[in-house]
Amino acid sequence: MKTCWLIGASSGIGFELAKKLCSNGYNIIISSRSLNNLQELKNMIEEDKKNSNFPQNFGEVLIEIVDVVDVNSLNMAWQNIIKKFPNIELAIFASAIYERMALKNFDLDLAKKIVEINFNGFLNFLSIVAPYFIAKQSGHIATIASVAGYRGLPQSMCYGATKSAIINLCEGIYPELKSQNVLISVINPGFVKTRLTDKNNFAMPFIISPKQASDYIYQGLMAKKFEIDFPKKFTIILKFLRILPYKFYLPIINKIYQKNN
Q1: The pTM is what?
Q2: Does 22 sit behind a cis peptide bond, omega within 30 degrees of 0 on the bond before it?
């Protein structure tokens, strides 16, 4: 039975993805700062396991509390994990915070917090799991970025910048990991209805549920894709905008900004 460590499992996409992986035969270590939410998730999985006609398909669930900005916290959790499950096949970083922010309302402390959790947290995670997978010459690392990282978007500072940095980083380390037989996947969702997107006060095209998102991600992980982007109707549009020269792109986002202000 395969084993996965999933950080950011306390709500939203991570919550549903943990259930999806466990129901498909993965032992799963679920991590976040919220013990209550993780315990709720574990209870839910255990209840599903009892009610399943094929309980042997379900994996085991282990809780490890972590704070992604504290590398010592991650390292302690990792040591506990590999003692119980020496062979980890998949490690997923799904932890993030999101706040809409315009330059006129710039909050430096909040901006630094977003960078610390979203990007530096991923670096902390990577510093622990990458050497392990490289040493055993196998494994799969995945992280949730966002289509907001494709190009600069109005009122997306600093969230979009952190997601762009993650995409850039994953592209850069892909060949090195591949040479060591280690997979990496960057997950770029469009709008997913979570506590993060509930903060938005504008229409969100092609918005999907966390369960739908988890289905897309699971399929992409099993297919060993580098980029897992969804829903395609939305990501195709943003990928087109991604390749536009500035003389076309900037007027478009200027209109978007004016429409929403």
Answers
A1: 0.93
A2: no
